Amino acid sequence: MSFHFKKLLKATTLLTVLAVALVGCGSKSTTDAGSANALEQIKKSGKIKIGLMGTYAPYNFINDKREVDGFDADIAKAVAKHIGVEVEFITGEFSGLIEGLQKDKYDALVSQVTITDDRKQKMDFSTPYVKNAVNVIVKSDNTSIQKIEDFKDKKIGVGLGTNDEKYLRDVAMPKVGKFEIATYNDVITSLQDLNVGRIDATINNVFALKPLIEKNHFDVKAVGEPIKEDVAGIAIRKNNPELLAAINKALEEMKSDGTFKEIFKKWFDVEPNI
After folding, report:
1. pLDDT one-digit tens code per residue, 87-131
2. Where is the Ionotropic glutamate receptor C-terminal domain (predicted)?
């Protein structure tokens, strides 16, 4: 082997070692950046991206000023304030919110996401911030439906992808017999269809329905006792304990300083139920 070739071989080997070292440093840097927890990233950006429907008054809706408003919106703003950031609201149909959370479109969901065992497998939840009683809703002149047992052979409307839809399919139908389920992306359309007789009944909670019924003069009513009670929490991606702890701390502080009670009475005109 010639002297010049040996020098060239040594130089090539050295360059290769340097290249590997540099790539290793680059990989470490990327890993370190990606390892920053969700709370740190939110604080660094100065905002938290909140997903909600925007069509579910009084929980969350677009007001006359084209702003996101409602109980959920006020809760989200107060939580963000306690964390020390601003809120960026991103609206979408409920059926796509959970998928959007998984794909990092949102940092959290504050849109009446009912806490269930199934959802706990996919998301982490804050402590509950509201309890909702779900009733059967029918036209005011309907006397044939008073309870879920009367749903057999009827057409029942429900929100697409909601816990109420799962309840109808997994609990009500096996219990009472076959009936048709019509799904909707917003509550107002289901009430419109109920009002004109396209469906026989729907299920929802009275807090959500009351303002819509009054504003649109729908000729409908709630009947019977509540068929179930649900609790909703703020949903985040799994394995973000720092963010979950910060949200829970904010909710606890809001209850201590009176903010939570003020928001609850503003939208529902009753004392907090949780």
Report:
1. 999 999 998 999 999 999 999 999 999 999 999 999 999 999 999
2. 47-270
